[in-house]
Amino acid sequence: MLAGLRWAWSTQILAVIAKIILGLMIRIGIVLLALGIADAFYQKWKYIQELKMTKQEVKQELRDTIGSPEVKSRI
Hints:
Helix content is 80%, strand content 0%. By secondary structure, the chain is mainly alpha-helical. It has one domain. The chain is rod-shaped, with a radius of gyration of 31 Å. One of its GO terms (biological process) is protein secretion. Keywords: Membrane, Transmembrane, Transmembrane helix. The chain crosses the membrane at residues 20-42.
């Protein structure tokens, strides 16, 4: 494609360069769109994981709401 441009007019050269640049921009846009979609799914998954309580947090919450088993046995 570029070898034939040696004797071409400047308008033809600019048209070929514009076509190449447009193709690159479209490819880059597709890659960025795919990365954005993947990142959105990852961020949602990470947010949900951060909301989950650990086993220690669950035990502590149960002790706070219904009381410690040691204290209940003394009553």
